[in-house]
Amino acid sequence: MGFFPSLPTLILFTLVLNSALLFCNGGKTSVYIRKEEKTVDMPLGSDVFRVPSGYNAPQQVHITQGDHVGKAVIVSWVTEDEPGSNTVLYWKKGSDEKKKAEGKVTSYKYYNYTSGYIHHCTIKHLEYNTKYYYVVGDGHSMRKFWFTTPPEVGPDVPYTFGLIGDLGQTFDSNSTLTHYEQNPQKGQTVLFVGDLSYADNYPFHNNVRWDTWARFVERSVAYQPWIWTAGNHELDFAPEIGETKPYKPFTHRYHTPYQASGSTSPLWYSIKRASAYIIVLSSYSAYGKYTPQYEWLEAELPKVNRSETPWLIVLNHSPWYNSYQYHFMEGESMRVMYEPWFVQYKVDVVFAGHVHAYERSERVSNIAYNVVNGICTPVKDASAPVYITIGDGGNIEGLAINMTQPQPAYSAYREASFGHAIFDIKNRTHAYYNWHRNHDGAAVEADSMWFYNRFWHPAEEPASHSH
Ligand SMILES: *[C@@H]1O[C@H](CO)[C@@H](O)[C@H](O)[C@H]1NC(C)=O
Ligand SMILES: *[C@@H]1O[C@H](CO)[C@@H](O)[C@H](O)[C@H]1NC(C)=O
Ligand SMILES: *[C@@H]1O[C@H](CO)[C@@H](O)[C@H](O)[C@H]1NC(C)=O
Ligand SMILES: *[C@@H]1O[C@H](CO)[C@@H](O)[C@H](O)[C@H]1NC(C)=O
Ligand SMILES: *[C@@H]1O[C@H](CO)[C@@H](O)[C@H](O)[C@H]1NC(C)=O
Ligand SMILES: [Fe+2]
Fold first, then answer.
1. C-alpha span between 305 and 73 (Å, rounded)
2. Residues in contact with 154: Cβ distance below 8 Å, sequence separation at least 6, in sequence order
3. What residue range is the signal peptide (predicted)?
């Protein structure tokens, strides 16, 4: 004898179940509504795009980490009139001993655009935790900048990372960068989660917008490293105009220290910086079994020594846990490939971009499903990373406003605003994370959370604060 509920009972039961799902399961969707405004690119004549004065003056100066541990820096710049010098002159603050490093020059053509002379020079054997000055260019057009090397790699070294994604070159992009610069927490290095210039939104991918973007961000990236992740806007794959080599502008302009981590491609690599081990992945390169990226990551994860670098951070462009309608489930196949490893190796946090909004997940995993067992709902998992989408730099494509409803249980907080975040490592167990929306003052936190390290302190984190 079975139990057959009457139709009214069944309807009532279904209603109760639905409202339970609706009210108990989901996280928080922000009530903050941004006022309507157009996201437009800054015009070519804008102050941020100004070309430095002087014949052949170096422009678009940018730096990134140049080795695996933070004792080298790649300095890159562009000259427009002639190749000029490849030399970087550098010295320790307070020292008279000036050193020279020799770089290389390259250039490329894209449809009917010809790039300037793009210089890359790696300065090696730097001392940790030291301020260096450096000079690029010749004669009257020399330009001087500075950077500070990170402290020696070690388990309890505090370090402050900024997070920016999908920046572009609109007035909103400028606002994001300004807020990052003015943030009193003072980020020391930017983890950039992909989609830099959005030049590909222009007719024929007008690469002049790669140049303007690099001049725009120089005011930050000439003084502190930005760690590059490639996004879909770096592909510049355009067979209709004969451009069939993916990533051509990006790889000519932005170098990464991929060889130092045994990678065979500049699009995926790892670095150690202070107490963090940072793995950069490429959403738009092959990642299936037997591919170079797969084999590299499989060999890479066991190398992470949490006694040396407690914090394991992954950067990626297309998010795996995203509850906006935009790019919904685009990251799914990569998640299926790699998520079991992220749980096994207890990744602390994964930062992604691509969706032009902000979202933070619960610690969840979804690795039990095997096509036939039906177990396909993400579950709370203390060994799983928190997934953060920070594709809200402010590019020309505008905000992602439409969200899937109801908010799924994996999504802890979501808001369609532009902004940036800070990941502030205190020691091997604690890191303080916060997100800042552009419409507030530079110091206002719209979302924040204490991270407990998954290796050293895998306890449940206290409730976060979002407003
Ligand atoms: C490239 O071609 C486009 C379309 O013909 C044209 O509008 C643009 O001015 C050209 N740019 C250069 C640098 O020749
Ligand atoms: C960009 O922001 C900087 C710093 O706030 C400001 O000086 C500059 O005028 C802004 N430029 C544009 C085009 O908005
Ligand atoms: C891990 O790092 C610690 C601290 O630097 C070191 O003592 C230990 O030998 C390393 N372990 C391995 C397996 O390399
Ligand atoms: C967002 O949702 C609204 C209402 O459902 C719909 O009209 C609009 O087309 C959606 N926009 C995008 C970009 O998906
Ligand atoms: C690590 O940092 C947190 C937050 O600042 C602090 O409460 C904790 O005492 C620190 N742990 C150690 C061992 O210093
Ligand atoms: Fe993207």
1. 23
2. 274, 275, 308
3. 1-26
CB-ligand 2 contact for 87 (6 Å cutoff): no
Give the per-residue pLDDT at 36.
63
At a CB cut-off of 8 Å and minimum separation 6, what does 347 contact? 312, 313, 314, 384, 385, 454
Pocket test for ligand 2, best of 39, 40, 47 (most atoms within 8 A of CB): 47
- Phi and psi angles of residue 344, each rounded to the nearest 5 degrees, phi first: -60, -45
How far is C-alpha 66 from the geometric centre of its chain's CA atoms? Answer: 17
Contact 317, 354 (CB under 8 A): yes
Going by CA atoms, what residue is nearest to atom 9 of ligand 1? Answer: 112
Nearest to 193 by CA among 250, 234, 231, 233: 231
Domains identified in the chain and CATH numbers: 153-194+267-466 (3.60.21.10)
Q: What is the mean pLDDT of the chain?
A: 94
Residues with catalytic annotation?
Answer: 327
Find out whether the beta carbon of 430 lies less than 6 Å from any atom of ligand 5: yes
Read off the pLDDT of each residue in 37-42 and give the average, rounded to a whole number.
87
Distance 148 CA to ligand 5 centre (A): 25
* 3-class state of residue 342 by DSSP: helix
pTM for the whole structure = 0.94
Contact (CB, 8 A) for 170 and 195: no
Nearest ligand (C-alpha, residue 431): 5
Residue with tokens 């510049």: 236
Looking at all shown ligands, the one closest to residue 175's CA atom is 2
Spatial distance between the Cα atoms of 163 and 418, rounded to a whole number of angstroms: 12
- What mean pLDDT is predicted for residues 217-233? 98
User: Is the pLDDT reported for residue 6 higher than 70?
Assistant: no
